[in-house]
Fold:
Amino acid sequence: MKYKSILLFGAPGSGKGTQGKVIGNILGFMHTSTGDLFRALDKNSEMGKVAAQYSSKGLLVPDDFTVNLWTQSMQKLVDAGKLNPPTDILVMDGIPRSVKQAELLADNIDVLKILSLNVSDMDMMVDRLKKRAIKEGRKDDADEKVIRNRFAVYEKETQPVLGFYPKDKIATVDALMSPIRVLEAILKVLIPIREAVDAQPAKPSCCGGH
Ligand code: AMP
Structure:
């Protein structure tokens, strides 16, 4: 079964994590962030070292490594009974971040909608990221050179992901509005989607079909 998913899309600092965490607290939604998964890895483990090698420079961690880590993490949530794929909607924050990742995930996720958090003023994003770096102790966003590199990587590798999905799946939200306004705009998109999933008849868990 494919995971029902909403993709949160946007440049670093556009508010994907802030909004994703709030939405993930609503019944029937689960927030998943690859940035958080990488930061949670033990820094001395082989996997932690690989992730840090790329993220400290603002580069994307290799696609196979990223998709494997994400897939394993989702499976762990299912096994622990925290994620119920037939009914729960994943709020995907920071993945897919390249066309290759979108291709690798195509068999695993059913993309219900893409919420593109649009930013017209990148300099404002630099300020946001620097403030967040101090608050959260994030090394990658403490260095303006790394931040600029993250934007460049976003434009070159992540923006093209939007072209991978049908246009009518994409809803654009102005990320420079106040956080609560951004949330309001997101909820307007998500409520009908949640209700449509709720209205689907429950499938038998096993052995039906003959
Ligand atoms: P984030 O917290 O989403 O800004 O991600 C922090 C860093 O983690 C990024 O700059 C990348 O180095 C890495 N990262 C997060 N998500 C991905 C992804 N889907 N693919 C590759 N690298 C990622």
Notes: The pocket of adenosine monophosphate is lined by residues 12, 34-35, 38, 54-55, 58-61, 66, 94-95, 97, 101, 140, 150 (CB under 6 Å). The CA atoms of residues 27 and 102 lie 26 Å apart. The chain has eight helices and five strands.
